[in-house]
Specification:
204 residues, alpha+beta, Alpha-D-Glucose-1,6-Bisphosphate, Chain A, domain 4, 8-stranded mixed β-sheet, globular, CO_DH_gsu, START-like_dom_sf, Carbon monoxide dehydrogenase subunit G
Length: 204
């Protein structure tokens, strides 16, 4: 499936590009992500996501397959496998930077292939997850930029850190949006049941 997201960083394009291509630095900005090691251009780490009481942890690798430092366009391929389970995930992420006033607009296109427990969810939910991830990621990048913490490289993370709680960031909002039509459907069903029983009683 293809997912598309856009966010803004309050830095000029050159500085934003420098920041976004420093994966060890920005990994902690992505909820649930951690980076353990970098070997010959291959980034090794994991991602933890939580849906209610269930936590799925993936471990895998990522690497740049294209990097245009002039056009500010990069393509990353990532592959992962569940730590406890047979699920797999593979993604090709293309990020393109554009000047946006005194900041930068970042367009992200993701081609995602997933199997296992997570595959039961439809594209709409993955779009919600992707949007929630990008929103939190962009918020943390913005805070990093405003605090002026982009000057020195950050250490590689050595632990899984927090999990992205999909129940709080995605599922609950989806259910809230679905609440009105769901209640309407229930009320309509009850009304039909009452009318049906009343009609049957009249003709008994």
């Amino acid at each position: 499936m293809r997912l598309e997201n856009t966010f803004r960083v309050p830095l000029p394009v050159e500085r934003t590009w420098e920041l976004l291509t420093d994966l060890p630095r920005i990994a902690p900005c992505l909820p649930g992500a951690h980076l353990d090691d970098v070997v010959d251009g291959e980034y090794r780490g994991g991602l933890s996501t939580k849906i209610g009481p269930i936590t799925a942890r993936y471990r895998g690798t990522a690497r740049f397959v294209e990097r245009d430092d002039v056009g500010h366009r990069g393509v990353i391929e990532a592959r992962g496998r569940e730590e406890r389970g047979a699920g797999t995930a593979a993604a090709t992420v293309t990020a393109t930077l554009h000047p946006d006033g005194d900041g930068t607009r970042v367009e992200v296109a993701t081609e995602l292939s997933i199997s296992g427990r997570a595959a039961q969810f439809g594209r709409s939910l993955f779009s919600e997850v992707s949007a929630a991830l990008m929103a939190q990621f962009a918020s943390r990048l913005e805070a990093m930029a405003r605090e002026g913490t982009t000057a020195a490289p950050a250490p590689v993370a050595d632990g899984p850190g927090e999990s992205l709680d999909l129940a709080a960031t995605v599922v609950v909002p989806v259910l809230r949006r679905a609440a009105v039509p769901a209640v309407t459907a229930v009320l309509a069903g009850l009304a039909g049941l009452v009318v049906g029983r009343w009609s049957a009683h009249r003709h008994a």
